[in-house]
Amino acid sequence: MITGGCQALHREQEQGRARRRGNLRVNLLTRPDDLSLGYYQEAFPVLRQLLLSMSRSSRIRHLVERAPVSRSVVARFVAGTGAEEAVASTRALVDKGLLASLDHLGEDTVAVEQATATRDAYLRLLQLLADAGMTRAVEVSVKLSAVGQALPGDGEKVALDNARAIAQAARAAGTTVTLDMEDHTTTDSTLGILRELRQDFPDTGAVLQAYLHRTEADCRDLAHAGSRVRLCKGAYKEPESVAFQGRHDVDGAYVRALNVLMAGDGYPMIATHDPRLVSITEELARRTGRAKDSYEFQMLYGIRPHEQERLAAQGQRMRVYVPYGDEWYGYLVRRMAERPANLAFFLRAVATKG
Ligand SMILES: Cc1cc2nc3c(=O)[nH]c(=O)nc-3n(C[C@H](O)[C@H](O)[C@H](O)COP(=O)(O)OP(=O)(O)OC[C@H]3O[C@@H](n4cnc5c(N)ncnc54)[C@H](O)[C@@H]3O)c2cc1C
Asked: Catalytic residue numbers?
């Protein structure tokens, strides 16, 4: 039976999810190669809406989570529900010469207890990674919203305290933390918390999103010695007032930001599956005389795995972003809503029973 307090928390969680859902465009996974997201949204609005409502339905969630086919489908994009499974999946990547950054999947944090639980999940994960002797190759990625940033009142302080505890544990384990970047309303707050954290943990990684108009300037600020900066295109639905909208404009902005980071003194982390951007990075590294250990590529777990291995085999540092956790349902269904190819993969798995 659900108690009154739990019902209120559940209601708040639903409201929080609904607010954030409206703002989400392509949370983490890629747009299709042959079909732009804009085209897909215009051509298949009903399908997309259906999938997005599926991501909110606890009844369908219950069914999908128990379907015999689910595990194999989930396993393509999510490295397990528990930390042990995630560490085992990550071990397989590390054995192939890849690096990794683990992300504990969560939905909206609307109570301080959830933020504390997320912090504790990271502390446990870091201990497991240290015990497995993997922290030279594996770091963690943290969303500040998951550790309390959006809580009313002193949310930023809660998030900073939790992020500090995670950074401390990462240091003790021999690794680092990168702060994921979320929608533009959080950018100043996230960069502010990054600055605070870097006073004690200068190796804390930042993320900048090429689609934001401000990013080239942020790159200049952050391209200093010792500064680890992940550059991605950006995954949220943002207004024209703050972000480039078209694919070509975003790609152009990515190249400008990349130029700044590669010419600077920091450690650029090039997070993209885009083959053109990978080639441009290699060319810029040649031109600027950057050694292969002075920057790295990053891609998502399950996306272009052969390219990940190819780059690693060429001596490039290649880090895989590895999400795990039992909140995979919403993550997975949103991946399908974003990319028809992911849905086809799911349906094929259902048809062939995995
Ligand atoms: C490691 C990592 C961390 C990230 N962290 C954040 C973050 O903190 N905040 C945030 O807002 N966003 C983050 N993102 C998401 C990012 O912003 C983009 O939404 C996402 O990576 C898609 O952009 P893309 O650069 O891969 O290019 P896209 O425009 O999606 O794809 C470009 C090209 O890549 C190729 N490609 C893409 N997918 C495939 C595929 N499955 N198979 C074959 N080719 C493919 C195709 O040639 C395609 O045309 C992260 C992405 C990565 C990889």
From this structure: 180, 230
